[in-house]
Design a protein that fits this description.
By secondary structure, the protein is an alpha+beta fold. The protein has a single domain, classed as Pleckstrin-homology domain (PH domain)/Phosphotyrosine-binding domain (PTB) (PH-domain like). The protein has three helices and eight strands. The longest helix has 10 residues. The two termini are 18 Å apart.
Length: 150
């Protein structure tokens, strides 16, 4: 799968070296970086923010280790949750086609004062590997949201 243009030009969406070392120590199950994707919000209300529907592109990375699931879009952390955290079941995972991974969740489960659905849609050739790894640590199968993927 091709890396995003921003990753190829500026290394945006790359896993920081310091964090990579830490994740390797935790035992990486599956990881990918420089993935193009879409950050999609539906009916989100947050402090100072209100979005009925918003979609924006990103270059990011996602890793599943034996200890946690962590995801950054550009350099902003979106997910960082331990595999033993009961909220891991609040992550919904879907592979609508062979090179697309969808991770969606109700934002109130992970962010204080937020409400609404957030979906991270990654373009990666490792979508099936991520789905298997996330389901193995307790994520739920399916998608939250109002519109079909595509």
């Amino acid at each position: 799968m091709k890396r995003s243009l921003l990753y190829r030009l500026f290394r945006l969406g790359a896993m920081p070296k310091r964090l990579r070392t830490e994740l390797e120590g935790e035992g990486i199950v599956v990881a990918d970086e420089g993935m193009p994707g879409r950050f999609i919000t539906r009916h989100v209300n947050a402090p100072g923010k209100r979005y009925r529907f918003r979609s924006e592109g990103f270059s990011g990375w996602l890793a599943v280790t034996r200890r946690r699931v962590i995801c950054h879009t550009f350099s902003k952390r979106q997910i960082n949750i331990g595999v033993d955290d009961p909220r891991i079941g609040d992550l919904f995972v879907d592979v609508p086609d062979e090179d697309t991974l969808s991770v969606s969740f109700e934002s109130s489960s992970f962010r204080e004062g937020w409400q609404g659905v957030i979906e991270l849609r990654f373009r990666t050739g490792r979508a099936a590997e991520f789905e298997d790894a996330l389901l193995a640590v307790g994520a739920s199968r399916g998608r939250l949201g109002l519109q079909p993927s595509g």
